[in-house]
């Protein structure tokens, strides 16, 4: 199963703070068109009485392995470090659309999935802080996924509605069963998918062209 390994966040800061009821912005914010693993990504977390926009490294490190950019719902309870993050260290990763690749014979094509009703939606995440030998802090997060997306081998990000997001960010909520009950995948029909440039596979390609719809023949990559 391939990871959900590319997404975009194209909301204006004013819309993001209003839609997600963010009280405080702790980091510089700018639109992102091709967010990739190991990069710093915007996250929302509850700090004291405030809902804050912060940033974390996308991908757990160092000993969890290089592919720890997603955590599957079905394995959250299998590992102690994931259970600890689930009960104590939760965040929301705002997303305007995520990318998938569809296999077509000896070619694959790049597609973007967007929610039909929400310009930006909430993906649940869990996080930790890694300390290096000099006690420098490196916050890191992973996105929770389940199942597969649109008849591909890509995992599908879980999406929280407003009520579920409030519970997810509430540090007083520590019941594993309650938290896992929030992690329901949406039907494919809630999304629209459209072909995009194959250049989104290149992490250096970070322009508005990444989210532009193209003719399906232009989304193909020979492999």
From TrEMBL:
<dbReference type="GO" id="GO:0003697">
    <property type="term" value="F:single-stranded DNA binding"/>
</dbReference>
<protein>
    <recommendedName>
        <fullName>Abasic site processing protein</fullName>
        <ecNumber>3.4.-.-</ecNumber>
    </recommendedName>
</protein>
<dbReference type="InterPro" id="IPR003738">
    <property type="entry name" value="SRAP"/>
</dbReference>
<dbReference type="GO" id="GO:0106300">
    <property type="term" value="P:protein-DNA covalent cross-linking repair"/>
</dbReference>
<dbReference type="GO" id="GO:0016829">
    <property type="term" value="F:lyase activity"/>
</dbReference>
<keyword id="KW-0238">DNA-binding</keyword>
<keyword id="KW-0227">DNA damage</keyword>
<keyword id="KW-0645">Protease</keyword>
<dbReference type="Pfam" id="PF02586">
    <property type="entry name" value="SRAP"/>
</dbReference>
<keyword id="KW-0190">Covalent protein-DNA linkage</keyword>
<comment type="similarity">
    <text>Belongs to the SOS response-associated peptidase family.</text>
</comment>
<dbReference type="GO" id="GO:0008233">
    <property type="term" value="F:peptidase activity"/>
</dbReference>
<dbReference type="InterPro" id="IPR036590">
    <property type="entry name" value="SRAP-like"/>
</dbReference>
<keyword id="KW-0456">Lyase</keyword>
<dbReference type="GO" id="GO:0006508">
    <property type="term" value="P:proteolysis"/>
</dbReference>
<keyword id="KW-0378">Hydrolase</keyword>
